[in-house]
Amino acid sequence: MGVIGGALDPKSPRFRSLLHPVRMGDTTYLDLVDGNGIVLISTKAGRAFAESDHGRFLANLIQEKRPVVGACHSCHRGNGRPEREIMAFAPLTFAPWGINIREAESETLAAGFTMERRLLSVGAVTILVALLFAWGVARSVTRPLGVLTDAARQITRGNLEEPIPSFGEDEVGQLAQSFDQMRVTLKSSMETIAQWNRDLEARVQRRTRDLEALNAELQRKEEIQRELLKKVITAQEEERKRVARELHDETSQASAALLLSIDASSESIPHEAKEQLQRMRAMADRVLDSIHHLIFDLRPSMLDDLGLPSALQSSAESHLEPLGMDVSFEILGHERRLEPEVETTLFRIGQEAIANIRRHAEAESVRIAVEFGEEEVRLEIEDDGKGFDAGAVERATDRASGLGILGMRERAALLDGTLTIRSQPGMGARIIARIPLVEGSRAKLEP
Question: Mean pLDDT over residues 386-411, rounded?
Answer without folding.
Answer: 75
